[in-house]
Amino acid sequence: MSELKQWLNDIANGDKVAFEKLYESEHKPLFTVILRITRDYKLSEDILQDLFLKVYVSQLTKVSNPRAYLYRMAHNMAIDEIRKQKPQSEIEEAEKISPYYHAPVSDKTDIENAIYSLPERERKIMSLHIDGDLKFREIAEIMRIPLGTVLWSYRKAIKHLQTTLRSTL
User: Fold this and answer.
1) Which residue has the higher pLDDT, 83 or 52?
2) What structural domains and CATH numbers belong to the chain?
């Protein structure tokens, strides 16, 4: 049994330590995935909090792939919120999520601008793969699109980022 699946079983039995472990393990990549969709820092924090509340209250013991399930929840909750409200994001707020980049602020801004210049689907696929550490077939399942489309979109996004970042650096 995977560590994540064990934590979910323990959480279902009321183990708060398992919940803390799950949170520490997954909150940054889940938050990044949510932020890449909403482009709103405060809204992403709220969605993440709601997601972990659902995990704590729900009995997720019968989930076959808990990692993919968590990211599908994050993805769907972010999409639902976007449909409810018009996001108001600024790059300064997006920079707050940059723990993965150890570069000067100007480079972080260039990276974030390049990421946000991607079409929404490509940005989601990149975030789920890089930040969420999900396999392409899991991303295809989460986004309900063919695996070939996921692979093509990812390659296209990488090429776009390379071109964009070469011109700014």
Assistant:
1) 52
2) 1-87 (1.10.1740.10), 101-169 (1.10.10.10)
